[in-house]
Amino acid sequence: MxxxxxxTFGGLPALYYIRQFPFGFVTPALIVFVRxxxxxxxxxxxxLCIIFAVNTLLYPYSRFVYERIAGYIKHVSSIKRVESWFGxxxxxxxxxxxxxxxxxxxxxxxxxxxxxxxxFWSAAIFIAPIVLIYLYIHNSRSSEAA
Length: 146
Prior knowledge:
Layout: H1 3-8, H2 14-24, H3 26-37, H4 46-73, H5 78-84, H6 92-97, H7 106-122, H8 124-145
């Protein structure tokens, strides 16, 4: 693999990408479902399908920004949380919730999580290039230091 691709697209931990990727399917699935329930909705064009696919593939990189910001706010390294998601939080609830404590009702929490997923999925095409540049610089410095 070319070093630039390895340092950018391969820059996220594989477990993080695997965990976030299914959540990236939530927004387009909801959009397609809602559109299928509307009787007079025009068919989805090829361009819209391409945008859906690109946003879904880039969603984990977009979500990485949120995890980093949340990690700084909570004074917790998001990379450390990423590595613990599959170890400490086994099961379906741990997979959905991740490494966070919940102090609100389940319905409220799920609604907020869906809104965050939809927001970062929608903006993935704009946020991901910035994250890829950051990952390239971060991983280049890490490989030089080693």
